[in-house]
Amino acid sequence: MMDxxxxxxxxxxxxxxxxxxxxxxxxxxxxxxxxxEGKRLAAFKSLLELDDNSLWALVSGRTEQPAVATxxxxxxxxxxxxx
Length: 83
Hints:
This protein is mostly helical. The protein has 5 helices and no strands. The protein has helices spanning 4-13, 19-32, 38-48, 52-60, 71-82. It is globular, with a radius of gyration of 12 Å.
């Protein structure tokens, strides 16, 4: 489990320029932060490295998968889409 400093840093990185992303990412963290560790956490962070439009295209389903889709990235995307 991540410590408070890492969690706060992650929450800060979820602040985006696009309101839709902000809302989904905030809801995702509220629901799933406790289960983010190891490969799942790395997958989530890799999605946060995407620009706002690319991230929203994935979350909204306009784009099916990122260029490099690991099972963990696919799992995180499924959870994000459920938010």
